[in-house]
Design a protein that fits this description.
Elements (H helix, E strand, L loop, with lengths): L1 H30 L11 E7 L2 E8 L2 E8 L10 E9 L4 E9 L4 E8 L5 E5 L2 E4 L5 E5 L6 E5 L10 H10 L1 H10 L4
Parallel strand pairs: 3-9
Antiparallel strand pairs: 1-2, 2-3, 4-5, 5-6, 6-7, 7-8, 9-10
Helix pairs in contact: 2-3
Length: 185
């Protein structure tokens, strides 16, 4: 009799496990996947470049916004915390990011676009138009954060450290921003 009970319990355990796996797969495939009508290739990510930090958003796998700040390295005996995300539908993409340091400096941003070319970018509660420039240089030292919006074509860029470094050499405003910070590139 104990053998029959053990076999029954084993069958129930295996069936329960199979049911859990099947339900989990159904949830992941059906419930967590982006809508098939969502705009593809919309992501938000970030990268430390020397002593600076770049948050960026992609639309159809093309970089459409970059928020570049002086919050790359933590202050002495301190920390820097960062987060970013994107949500997307069939009509628009929304990106957001935060970067805060233990000394109180912070960059909070949000961008919304329907076409990857126009839209609103809000940095530390101040609105900007994406069509007026896709690169935002943010200085957080010495008082309130100051933002410089830069007109820069980003569509051919691959988001990588060497790409940002090249932009820092080729774009005069980005170069000036990095030079003023004394950033390692």
């Amino acid at each position: 009799m104990p053998d029959k009970t053990m076999k029954t319990m084993l069958k129930i355990s295996v069936l329960t496990l199979l049911l859990v796996v099947a339900l989990s797969l159904a949830f992941v495939v059906g419930g967590c996947s982006p809508s098939p009508t969502a705009i593809p290739g919309c992501r938000c990510n970030d990268q430390v470049v020397g002593d600076t930090h770049v948050h960026y958003g992609t639309f159809r796998d093309v970089v459409v916004v970059a928020v570049w700040s002086d919050l790359g390295s933590p202050p002495a005996r301190g920390w820097v915390n960062s987060g970013s995300g994107a949500s997307v539908s069939s009509e628009r993409a929304e990106y957001s990011g935060t970067r805060t340091a233990s000394d109180g400096r912070a960059v909070e941003w949000k961008a919304i676009t329907t076409d990857g070319k126009t839209g609103r970018v809000t940095i530390n509660n101040k609105d900007h138009r994406l069509e007026e420039g896709a690169v935002f240089l943010v200085r957080t030292g010495d008082g309130p954060a100051r933002v410089t919006q830069v007109k820069q074509e980003l569509s051919g860029m691959t988001p990588a450290a060497d790409t940002w470094a090249l932009l820092g050499k080729q774009n005069p405003k980005v170069k000036k921003f990095l030079d003023e910070l004394g950033s390692k590139r």
